[in-house]
Structures are given as C-alpha cells and as structure tokens.
Amino acid sequence: MSDRAALVAYARDSIARGSKSFAAASKLFDRTTRERVWLLYAWCRKCDDMADGQDHGGAMDNVANPEARLNAIRELTAKALNGDTTGEPAFDCLGVVARECGLTQRMADDVIEGFALDTAGWQPRHENDLYRYCFHVAGAVGVMMAVVMGVSPDDEETLDRACDLGLAFQLANIARDIAEDGRAGRCYIPDDWLAQLDLEPGEHLRPHNRKKLALIGRWLADEAGQYEASAKVGAARLPFRARWAVLTAAGIYGDIARKVRAAGEHAWDHRIFTSRGEKLVWVARALVDAMRNHPAEMVREGLWTRSK
Fold it and tell me: CA-to-CA distance for 258 and 185, rounded, in angstroms?
C-alpha cells in the first residue's frame, strides 16, 4: 500500500480504533494537518502494538521474541524514512509524513527507545527514570507531532512545550493504568516512591495498600497537571486550528488525571475514561481559549466573521 489516499484511509481507521480522544481532537485540524497527524499516529500505534502484542491497544499478550519485534520496528522505520516502500501500511504512513514534514531518523529513534526500554523489562528506580521513560514513549511523539503541525525543528522552546504535553499524557495514562500494567507484570512507579510509602515492589496492588496507591495516583496526576499547564503555554505559538486541537486534547487527557485524583482508592475499580459529552465540553472550552487574543487568525481562516 503506497498510494497516499489509501494510507490516509488506513491511518484514519487506526486512530478511530486506537484513540477515541485523539481522534476527536484531530478533527479540529485543517485537512492537511489532520491527515498528517493520522499518518504519524498510525506508525506510533503499530510500533506500540508490535512491542506489546496488542491490537490497537487493549489487553497485552505475551510476546515470544520481543527483541525480534524491536529489530523489526527499527528496520521498517529506517526503510520508511529512507523513502522505500515497506509493505507495512503503518510504516509507509511514516514515510509519507516524514517526507512532507521533515521528520528525522533521530526523532523516530527517540520514540523507539521507549519500546526498547519495555523490551528490556526496564522499571524506573528513581523519579528521573520515570521522566526519561515518559519522554521516549510520549514526549518524543509530542515533538514529532509539533513538527507535523508546522513548528520548525529548530524552534526548541516550542518543541519543549510540545514534549511537556506528551509527558502530561503519559503520566495520566500511567496513573490510570496502574492496575492493568500490574497484571501485565509492569510497574512504572519509581522504586523510591514505593520506598517512601514503605511499599515493596510488586506489593502496591494488594487491597490493603489502596490508600498508599491512591497517594501515588495523586502524585502522578499532580505532575501531569503541571506539564499540561506548561504545554498550554506553548500551544499559544501554534496556528489557530492546531492550537484549538492541542488545547482540546490537553483538556480531555487532563481529565483522566483529574479523575484518577478525585477517585482516590477507587481509581482502579474500573477503567477511567472521558465521555463523549465531556469531550464536546472540552472542544467548546478549548475554542474559547484558542480564540483569546487571536481573533484575526479566525477571520483569515474563515472560522469567524467580524460583525459590521
């Protein structure tokens, strides 16, 4: 599959299956940016699924030879970035968007390093290790997404804020998925956090430790909130429609962290999510925020007409 239109259709289906929240926010981009966001998402989703034995997220399966999967990800990615057709639609999606936006091998390698950490059975010992992991699996994706939205690869300040949004998303996901990850034999809570609460690794999911686990959920949610706030500062530098989409996504994912915090000990009784109605509220709120001090952009893009 090498035809761009076919790849865009594949990518649109991938994001619809893999992330309802991100799919909703992506509709706010202009058509060209929206398609490029879908194309990049398809590659990220496929790499994640290959590494974890999943199908567009969901339950993880045992991967018989994780190193072989990781090598395949590296080889297919390099081939796509070299301009070759890979025969794997998700990697061909990357090839298209990389050529159109100037995505580099180094950017992709930063993302792949996150899968390498999981393949190695890595677990954070210290808080800085947690942020390192979040950078590779989400912050680096934020950087690539920002470039797709038109940010210059040389604009380090704005790219840093885009990275912050990825960190916010991942911290929220970790907080929400503590129980799910534990059942899969993974733990992204730093050892020094566990030690601070007198918790042994692997013991944090036991029912009698729920109060302590709720405190960890609150810490993760609070950190996510700080990175979300930082990312919103950077969003002000984006074009109007990109700014609207980013602020919408930040609010939707931010709600996941806020719900974990509010649920306390019950945060893992069932999977936390944002409803369709809540997403629509964030679309409206983000529109107001995106409009603030930028009415001229809306006029130029035909989204608002000044009253005479």
Answer: 25
Nearest C-alpha neighbor of 163 from the set 181, 282, 171: 171
Residue with tokens 């990615």: 77
For position 72, what pLDDT does the model report?
A: 95
Q: How far is CA 82 from the centre of its chain?
A: 25
Enter the tokens of residue 131.
């942020």
Q: How confident is residue 108, by pLDDT bands cut at 50, 70 and 90?
A: very high
- Provide the 3-class DSSP secondary structure of residue 271: coil
The identity of residue 277, as a single letter, is G
How many CB atoms are closer than 10 A to CB 23? 18
Query: pLDDT tens digits, residue range 196-242?
Result: 999 988 889 999 999 999 999 999 999 999 999 999 988 988 989 99
pTM, to two decimals: 0.86
Burial (Cβ within 10 Å: 0-12, 13-18, ≥19) of residue 230? middle
Sign of CA dihedral 249, 255, 258, 263: negative
DSSP 202: T
